[in-house]
């Protein structure tokens, strides 16, 4: 499922195919980052969970992205979709990297996803045990540092 590009102690990087979210070019290939080769199985679990987010979780993420973009001072000319069509915001943002947010196999499946919007702000979301726990610009605050 993951094509590993770099595997070093301290950080491993690879790519995988996203079933729903798209990258900047509209493609389905996203990057994945993990702190150690020992956590490669955790990375597989995270990709599996990410690719099986429920419709309601995706909708929640989209609604929160809209809210964050509006609060963040998006360009006045940027036209936001209506709440009934919140998924349309995905036409105006993209995602680049999924970061594994687990320190061991015993941890609950957790990850942070990084992206950006046409309105010029970075945006991301954090998921733990299939529950969206944060959407907004401060997504790295939800990363476990292991120290």
Per DSSP E runs of 2 or more residues, the count of β-strands stands at 7
Radius of gyration: 15 Å
Q: How are strands sequenced across the largest beta sheet?
A: 1-2-3-4-5-6-7
Parts with pLDDT < 50 across at least 5 consecutive residues: none
Which sheet architecture does the biggest sheet show? 7 strands, mixed
Share of helix, binned: 10-25%
Which structural category do the helix and sheet elements fall into?
A: alpha+beta
| Shape field | elongated
Order of helices and strands: EEEHHEEEE
Proportion in β-strands: 25-35%
The first-to-last residue Cα distance is 29 Å
Whole-number average pLDDT?
91
> Helical stretch count?
2
Q: What is the strand and helix layout of this fold?
A:
Blueprint: E1 3-8, E2 11-17, E3 29-34, H1 40-50, H2 55-71, E4 93-100, E5 110-117, E6 122-128, E7 131-136
Parallel strand pairs: 3-4
Antiparallel strand pairs: 1-2, 2-3, 4-5, 5-6, 6-7
